[in-house]
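Handout for the seminar on molecular recognition.
Each group receives one record of this type.
Step one: identify the two inputs.
Step two: read the structure output and locate the region that could contact uridine-5'-diphosphate.
Step three: write two sentences on what you found, then compare them with the reference statements printed after the record.
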Amino acid sequence: MKTISVVIPVYNENEVIKSSYNIIKKVLEKLTQYDYEIIFVNDGSTDGTLDFLQEISKENEKVKIISFSRNFGHQAAVTAGIQYVTGDAIVIIDADLQDPPELLPEMIELWEKGNEVIYGQRKARKGESAFKILTAKMFYCALNNLSDVEIPKDTGDFRLVDRKVIDVVNSMPEHNKFLRGLFSWVGFKQKAYLYERKPRKAGKTKYPFKKMWKLALDGIFSFSTKPLKIVGGLGFLTIILSIGILVYSLISYALNLNELVPGWTSIMVAITLFSGVQLLSIWVISEYIARIYDETRNRPAYIIDKKINIKD
Ligand code: UDP
Ligand code: MG
């Protein structure tokens, strides 16, 4: 019998975890031709989410728990979860029921037809703020213009992935994985699955702007070196510009075209423009250096405090 593994990252989801567990369990139990396991990755919750998970893991040994020593972030949680899956098909889904678990049977059907990565692509985003929708749009636009691999737009981490692909992603040496990019980068038989993203069932988003910004930068800097090329282009452009200004002032001086007053404005503009360009360029370069530093330090992306119902 084939096994479906469901990976759910959870961070302070006390308000919704019970109903999402019940719904996901019901969907999986209806699929009688498959066995299942649910791996909850507790990303340092402080609100009793872990207590609830521990309780259900006693009643149901198919519920497995990986609990972090603190909050390491959603990507780290999913990265840990997929390390411990034992199934033939792996589903990554959020705990807040925004991605409806009822779609699993259809995704499994697509998998049985030979698709190896079935990624959920949102055709509507209900109950999300205009700000979130706008920033998400900008993010995918920037990402796809900058990135060297094509990362499908409006696609989160909600997906069903074949064991084979999970093994490949798990074997990637990098610590900090931008998963939706990696899943696209590895190739294999990919299939978009259009669905309507629902509003959060309960609780608040655990993705404040700061975390979204980090995710966006990770996506861009870990999948593209184009920003470096843009910096190079900017450098050339400013050099050409300053040569232009030099030529212009020499010609005006030689031909006495106009009186060159000691120009406060032009100096200020030049200073601020060029120092702005320089600082921006240094920032872009340092984003890469920070990532190189992070990876060479070789620290793990997460620390596991305890595992429940997981055999090593
Ligand atoms: N999450 C997590 N660690 C974090 C933030 C979020 O494990 O630091 C989980 C969260 O519990 C949820 C999923 O990641 O299951 C997606 O988070 P959320 O729904 O808050 O993000 P949004 O849908 O608002 O982008
Ligand atoms: Mg959500």
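Reference statements: The first strand starts at residue 3 and ends at 10. The CA atoms of residues 42 and 67 lie 5 Å apart.
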